[in-house]
Amino acid sequence: MTTQTHHPDIEIYIKNAEHADIVKWLSQRFESFTSLGNKGVLHTWNASYQDHTFKVAIHERALGKSWCSVWFQSDSTPWSVDLDCAREAANALNLQVRCIASGWQEGDNPDEWWKLENGTEEKIEWKTD
Fold first, then answer.
1. The organism sits in which domain of life (predicted)?
2. What is the pLDDT of residues 109-119, one digit of tens each?
């Protein structure tokens, strides 16, 4: 159980994910999940959860060729913090998932991330520049 405050948005990175697999997971997770279109490798969706509708951006190859970003542009998601979402994604997709270790507070280490894979969680240094 996570004790951090509620993040204003949620973003995770998934290694070697197929776009169709992410869409299948999110279509099952949300009350509705509707495509708003795409521009190349950037796909935009509307998701509905508990009477809230918000945008979700899925960016294939966001970091190199391996990493896909999934950004939930709301604080009304099923998850309080990025780590909660990363746990669910890692379990649902059976892939490595990473998320920032904190909520981007002043003074936080921007290179400290959670790495979730095969049921394990560990904090790592991940320079994404």
1. Bacteria
2. 668 899 999 99
Q: How confident is the model at residue 129 (pLDDT cuts 50, 70, 90)?
A: low
Does residue 63 belong to any structural domain of this protein? yes
Residue 80 belongs to a domain with what CATH number?
A: 3.30.200
d(CA 18, CA 93): 10
Scored b (16 or more CB within 10 A) or e, 23-61 reads bebbeebbeebeeeeeeeeebbbebebeeeebebbbbbe
Tell me which residue range forms the domain holding 60: 10-97
Under the phi-then-psi rule, with left for phi > 0, alpha for psi from -120 to 50, and beta for the rest, what region is 119?
left
How many domains does the structure of the chain reveal? Answer: 1
Helix axes 82-93, 19-29, angle to 10 degrees: 110
| pTM of the predicted protein model | 0.89
Residue 77 pLDDT more than 80?
yes
Main-chain dihedrals φ then ψ at residue 41, nearest 5 degrees: -95, 5
In a domain, 125, yes or no: no
